[in-house]
Structures are given as C-alpha cells and as structure tokens.
Amino acid sequence: MENLAKTYNPKEFEDRLYNDWNNKGYFKADVNENKEPFTIMMPPPNVTGNLHMGHALNSTIQDILTRWKRMDGYEALWLPGTDHASISTESKVVTRIKEQGHSKEDLGREGFLEKAWEWTEEYGGNIKNQLRKLGVSCDWSKERFTLDEGLSDAVEEVFIRLYEKGLIYRGDRIINWCPSCATAISDAEVEHQESQGKLWHVKYPVKGEDKFIEIATTRPETMLGDVAVAVNPNDERYEDLVGKTLILPLVGREIPIIKDEYVEMEFGTGAVKITPAHDPNDFEIGLRHNLENLKILDDNAKINSNGGKYEGLERYEARKQIVSDLEDKDYLVKIKDHDHNVGHCERCDTIVEPIISKQWFVEMKPLAEPAIEALKNGKFKFIPERFEKIYLNWLENIRDWCISRQLWWGHRLPVYYCKDCGEVIVSKKRPEKCTKCNSENLIQDEDTLDTWFSSALWPFSTLGWPQNTKELEYFYPTDVLVTGYDIIFFWIVRMVFSGVEQMGEVPFENVFITGLVRDSEGRKMSKSLGNGIDPLEIIDEYGADALRFSLITGNTPGNDMRFYVERVESSRNFANKLWNASRFVIMNLGEEFHFTGIDNENLKVEDKWIISRLNSAIKEIDDNLNKFELGLAAQKIYDFTWNEYCDWYIEMVKPRLYGEDEADKITVKNVLIHVLGDINKLLHPFMPFVTEEIYSYINESNESIMVSNWPENDDKYNFVEAEEQIDFIMDAIKSIRNIRAEMNVIPSKKAKAIFVTQNYNKRKILENNELFFTTLASASSVEIKENKDGISDDAMSAVVEGAEIFLPLEELVDFDKEIERLEKEKSRLENEIKRVNGKLSNKGFVEKAPESIVNQEREKKQKYEGMLDKVVERLNNIIDKKD
C-alpha cells in the first residue's frame, strides 16, 4: 500500500487539494428537497482589503461549521462576497488620482467611477485569493458584490418601499460630519475617545444692564452660531433675566434668554449657550422655541461667511483666535481642564463635527420596535448571551439613521428633483418628465447611500430578493451569523430590522460573536504599533491547518484572544504527530489489507477501550459543536488523537502487529484504520488539508473526506468494562513511570514490578495484561501478591485504585553510579550558590543594579539551596542503602 511522504510538508499538498475540491464542485450548494439546508452568509470584507487575523479567525469558525454540517448530511451553503466600502475605497481612489496630478472633480462623476471600478478590479481579488489559502469551503459560484446589478436592485427596492411608507425622509438635522472624508457619517461610524480638553468660561453681557451670565463651553468657536442662552424654568437665579437679551461677545448680535426643561440647574452655572446648527441637543431646543439655525462651518470645517472676521479660518485656528480675543476684551472668566468623550470618524480618526445639514434619513423607531421584540421573543439568540444587552441598548436609544453620503462610489440615491417646480420623485428608473408639472428638466440626487444600507440586506438580497427565488425560499432564514462584537450596531441591528421589515422573518437563528485577535502582549494589532501579523506569512511557514487550529484552540465566543506563534508551532506539531502516526499505521497494513469492519467478537480489551473512547469523543464533540463550543471540541480531538490513540493505543498494539497471529493482526489493523478514519473526519473541519491528504491514503472508496459521513455515536461501541480495565492499567503504568523518573532511571534499565492486591478483578486484569507492563513500563517481570511479605523495606512504591505497586530499589539503581552522579550535582549546586552569594554580598551590585535583576539573583539562591537540600537528602539515603 502506498504511504504518505516521509515528512509532513503542507506546501506539497494544500494548494493542490484546494483546487481539487473547488474543481470538483464540493463547495457548491443547491436547492435539495432531500436535505435540510444549513446557511451561513460570509460577512463581506472590503473588496480592496487584505486578510488580517480577525478575518482568519472569523473565516475559520465559519468554515468549521460549514464543513461539519456538510459532512453531517446538510445542504450546506456558505455564501461569499465582498462589500464596496464606499468611504474607504473612494478615499484610496482619490489618493491615487491626486498622485497622478488630478482631482476627483477634474474627472467628473463618470470618469471617477471608471477609476474606482479599475481600482476594484485591480485589487478586488486579493482577499478572495487569501481566503482560498486559508482553505475556506464557501460556494464561489454564488459569490456576490454589494454593487452587483441584483443587489443594487434590492437596495433601490428597499429605499422606495421605505419612502412610500413614510419611513425615509429628507430634512435638516444634526448629523456627524467628517471634514476629512467630506461626508456625513452615521452614529455607528463614530468612535468616542476619552480626551483631555478645556472648559472655557465666558461672560455674556445682559443688554442695557451691568450684569452678565457666565457660560461654559468646550467648543468656543461655535459661539459664533449662538442664537440663545437657555436656563431651567425652575432656576430662581435667572428668574428676573428670562425674556431679556444678551449681547453675544465678539459678534455683538442680540440673543434671547429662554427657559427650557433640558437645562440642568446643578450642572455648571445652570445656563447653556444654544447653537442649534452645531449640537444635537441644541437643535431640539431650537425646534421647541422656533430658533434660527445659524451654520458657521463649511464642509471643510472652516469658518464660513456667518463667522465675520474669522471667515476662512480652520476650526481649531479659529478657536485659538477667538479665545485670545475673548481674553483681550475681558470676556474670558477662566479656563478649566475638562476630560470628555470626543467623537472620531472610525475610518480616518478625524474629529467629527456635529453640524446641521440637509440629508436623507430612515425613521428608526417603527423599525426598531419589531427588532427588539424579535430578540425578546427568542426568534434569534446571541452566543454568548451577554451581547444581547448591547443590541437592545442600541435599539432602545436609537436615533434616526442618516443614510446619505456625499460620495460618488456606492449606490446613488434613486431620487430625482424637478428643477422647475421642486417636486421630489423616487424611482428606480430615471423619469421622463416631472409627475407634477410635466417638466423634463430633472436632475438626480448626487449623494450615495451609506454602505451599511446595502449590507443590511445581505442575508436575502444575495439569494435573489426582491425576486421570490427558489434559493431564497430554501436557504432563508440563515442559521448562523459569525461576526465581531464591534459591529453589533453597525450591521447586526440593521440586518435584523431589514429582515423583519422586508421578509417578515429574522435573517438568522444564531449570532456567534467573536472577540478580537490581539498580539501576545494583549494589545490590539495595528499599523501604528507595528504589531500586526500577516496570516499569509504564518500559512507560508507553518501551513493553513496550523494557523486555523491555533486560532480555535482555547478560543471562546465573544472573548478576545492573544496570538502566540508558539501556539501555531504546537498546532503544526500536532499535525506532524498525526502524520507520523498515520504513516506508521499505513506502513504496517501490508499490500493485501482491506478494511472489513469492526467485529466485536474478536476485539481485545485495548481494542474495545479505544473504540469506546472514540465513541464517547464523538458524542462530546457533537455536543460541543452544537453549543458553538468550537475551542472545547478542538481540544477534545487533540487529546484523544495525541494521548489516547497515538501515545497509548498504538503503543499497546505494536506487539500484536509484529506477532504471528494473522487473524489478530487483521483485527488490530481494522481497529487502527477505523479509529484513524474517524479521527480525520472529526478533525477535518478544523484542519481540512492534512486530514484530506491522510484520508486519501486510507480510504478505499477514493471519495473526498469533505463529502464523507460525519462519525456517529453508537451504543454498540460503548465498552464500559474495557474502559475501566485499561484506565487501571494506564494508571499503574504511569505510576511506575513516575517512580522511574523520580529516580532518574534510564529507559533501558529493567526492574520487576510487584503488585499487591486482594481484589480478584484487579488481579485478573493484571494477569491478563502483563505484556503492557513489560513493553510500556520497562518491567523485567510482573509479580502479583496478596500481601507485602518478602518485599524489601527500601522498595519504591505507589498506590493505584485497588492495588499497591512496588519496585525493588536494587533493581532500579546502580548505587555507585548514582552516588557519583549526585556528588557531581552537589558540587555544581554549591558552586552556583557561592557565585550568587558573591554577587549579593557585593554592595555595589545590590545598590546599582536594577531591582528586578537583584531579585532574580535572590530567587536563584533560594532555588539552588532547595535543590541542594534534596540532592544531599537523596545522596545520604543512597549511601545508607548501599551500606
């Protein structure tokens, strides 16, 4: 029988196997009425992005679930795709155009979009090729892109439906404006960061009186847009001032003093400047009091013409100048340090500016309520449950969603304006004429939709919606969404309310939340820290299987994990262990061997034990996978494979493999192949490449392991008594090994093993399995006694359940050699202690060396002294025994 290559080298087969799987259509999933569907939608990465460790973890989890369900008899669809990433992609294309000496405006919209498509085609394949290197088994024939014609149709359909229901509107609202990206962004795209700022206290004089109101602000430049000062109606301090006017410092404009319940009397001076065009709370106050919206910043965050002499200054330059002028004119009372949260654009980290703008919004409350009920009524769940709080908190406090973006790359709003009468027309196709005045003078809105608007439709738009396709009917709703906790409100919330609104059903049953992959010190991987690790470099050095397994072992849903290269090395060692064990098994099968199944009648106790342990492992691993405990499942496969199969069972049956009983050899070979086959199947979702390569050598049907049947737990393979017997034998062998290790006995040195037991069952186990002790515990012979008569007092001993074990000391130790060895060790330790004492008695060293170094030397001294005590004790004991 042909054997595996002598050394495990994943580069020799990983690419070949992936291409083979793909070419044979193993990744494809189609409507199949004879099978139950299982569906995962790949969270679409940015089309021009590159694979990072977060992608690698997320994709590995999805692939494990998909491969498992495919083998378990489901029609498993993992649908891949990419996102057009409007802000990110447009920013990169704009940069390239600038490098070529042009601007976005020079090219015009159509010219710019041509460049954007060129960029997408140039870099759009990177992440897909990188995912293939990882081994993902998604259905590439169904790959989608958020700017596909079909998905674009879905986006326009949803926009029109929501508009016709009155849930999409255009209006002046405070939005988050990113001056760098030059577009509005949603609340979810704002990252709030703790910032050390200032609180400027400013005097606002009362008109015609020698009085003033003290106002505190963190953004003094916005005072140029102040239109009122508000106080609480119950604040007696300002009772006589309400209704009067103030003179706005530096500007000279008169502004009223108004009362509003929003103002907190206990906070600051109890008086608040009102700037409706630049603060969301002030905007609401402005609506209640019919105040003017005076906008003082342009789209580049520079002071506009409403700012008087400060016009043209960048916002922070204006702040410096205004504070200086306030101080010069004696309006500035004091400046206090003030820590507060400041919103930053999550794309470019620029501080966002709350600003009034005419934008398109989705009214969220009618959509949020059904999405809240869906979770509370158990229509879907989060794994782990604690993330439900984030989801509910976001929806219960949600504001209307600003969906328009001042960008060209993306889904352009299906909105047209009549230039003659101002009519607004929402339509998929460009109208020939105005529906109100019949004018043909129509223009389309320049803005595009927020990227998340299209991503929110991903679970059903990718299956053909708004057409009622067979795929949509069969594969929706999906089973699992695997995604990071950082986009619960970006994406999960929006998919749920979109699915409920458009499909009448939640888009998934389970949301598996992953944590972040951090570096070995627990820091977030980032370009600025230079601590990012390229998954492709890891794959190139260790193989995809090693990376995948290292990301899963020890991983729990929702928790961040640290990435250690040492863990990847350990995973590669595991693959190598399986490879070598498989080579050994195949090498000993012989040319004529054919698997004939498991015959319980011919099994010996060790055969029954490994089959029973495998049966238990299958059940436990199934339970773990069904609970999404992938890390625990991986660990159980590892433990069973390495410890029980490789280190115990193979070693136990070697004498039988090399023996003369041909019938028994066949039994052993059948068991070895049966268990090895199921090990590879259980491990396949986690380490697909090495398991496929091994399986192709041991499976006589030539089918891919990908489409083989998932192992099943079977009661007929539960051998409880055999497990108890082998557990007893293993405990005894480990006890003997421990004694030998403590005595530093070399493996080749044989010694009698004496068992003392009055338990009939234990005696029979020992009598029937003496061979295990001679082959696995270096026993020269095995003696079984009912009492300790004749056993030397100096015999080394251990206790296992139902028996005591004794090893005669004189058979374990060559006294003269052991005394010589211990004398050398004693001398070495005394020299080390002398060296350390010399350092610690040196006053210069103790005073000048770093405290940590001094402490290290003290710890060494303590360690060496402890070791010396043990060596002296052991030496004295050996000398006494010899005498």
Automatic annotation (TrEMBL):
Tree of life domain: Bacteria
Residue positions binding ATP: K527
Domain Valyl-tRNA synthetase tRNA-binding arm: 814-878
UniProt GO molecular function: aminoacyl-tRNA deacylase activity; ATP binding; valine-tRNA ligase activity
Reaction(s) the record says it catalyses: tRNA(Val) + L-valine + ATP = L-valyl-tRNA(Val) + AMP + diphosphate
UniProt keywords, alphabetically: Aminoacyl-tRNA synthetase, ATP-binding, Coiled coil, Cytoplasm, Ligase, Nucleotide-binding, Protein biosynthesis
Gene Ontology terms: cellular component: cytosol
Gene3D superfamilies from the UniProt entry: 2.170.220.10, HUPs, Isoleucyl-tRNA Synthetase, Domain 1, Valyl-tRNA synthetase, C-terminal domain, Valyl/Leucyl/Isoleucyl-tRNA synthetase, editing domain
Motif stretch ('KMSKS' region): 524-528
UniProt comment concerning the protein's domains: The C-terminal coiled-coil domain is crucial for aminoacylation activity. ValRS has two distinct active sites: one for aminoacylation and one for editing. The misactivated threonine is translocated from the active site to the editing site.
This protein's name: Valine--tRNA ligase
Taxonomic lineage from the root: Bacteria, Bacillati, Bacillota, Clostridia, Eubacteriales
